[in-house]
Design brief:
203 residues; mainly beta; outer membrane lipoprotein receptor (LolB), chain A; eleven-stranded antiparallel β-sheet; two-stranded antiparallel ribbon
Length: 203
């Protein structure tokens, strides 16, 4: 399965939260407000794996909890998140993987309400630099699943990239471009079908 989406369960030390400065707190509040205001979008994406290989495609995101990544031909893989599940299909391996969305780092981004200081999410690092702000997060109690770093362009604030580090230390970077607001989208867009049978709640 793509390292973009999940890490294997493993023992991990509790994450140490970052001591937030006043500037950090202001940035976090701004990011929370921005993310909670984003209901849906479409974008093209560039994915770079830890081995340097690249893949491109089209993405749809709709909060809460829905995402679809279609990889450009001839890449046959498909990733769909919806109804509490994340489904990854690799035709080359004839393999379909289903995992709970909440167990993945990206579940933080797709939550019904993004709250980065609630105690369920731990901020481990913030970097503010000209033109870009980066926030690194882990789920409390799920540190072994990996970390998520969200990168925002500034003035105006906009999500442009995320980086997932999985339990094996592998890194996957996804950069969004041609981002356009959108939605709501049909539920069928976030269902993965095998033959004529969609994978959805209870299916």
């Amino acid at each position: 399965m793509s390292v973009l989406w999940a890490g294997a369960p493993a023992a991990a030390q509790p994450a140490q939260p970052l001591a937030l400065t006043a500037a950090d707190q202001a940035l976090v509040a701004q990011v929370e407000a921005y993310l909670n205001d984003q209901k849906g979008l479409t974008a093209d994406f560039l994915q770079v794996a830890s081995d340097g290989s690249t893949r491109t495609g089209k993405a749809w995101l709709e909060r809460p909890g829905k995402m679809r990544f279609e990889y450009a031909p001839p890449d046959p893989q498909l990733l769909v998140a919806g109804f509490g599940l994340l489904v990854y299909h690799d035709p080359d391996l004839d393999q379909t993987t289903n995992i709970p969305l909440e167990s993945t780092p990206l579940g933080i981004l797709l939550a019904k309400r993004v709250d980065l200081t609630s105690g369920n999410v731990v901020i481990t690092n913030i970097q503010q630099q000209p033109g870009e702000d980066d926030i690194t997060l882990v789920r409390k109690g799920r540190e072994a699943a990996g970390s998520l770093t969200l990168s925002f362009s500034t003035d105006p604030l906009a999500l442009r990239q995320w980086v997932v580090n999985d339990a094996q230390g592998r890194q996957t970077r996804v950069t969004l471009y041609n981002v356009k607001p959108g939605g709501p989208y049909p539920n069928a867009l976030f269902e993965y079908s095998t033959g004529n049978t969609p994978i959805s709640p209870g299916g």
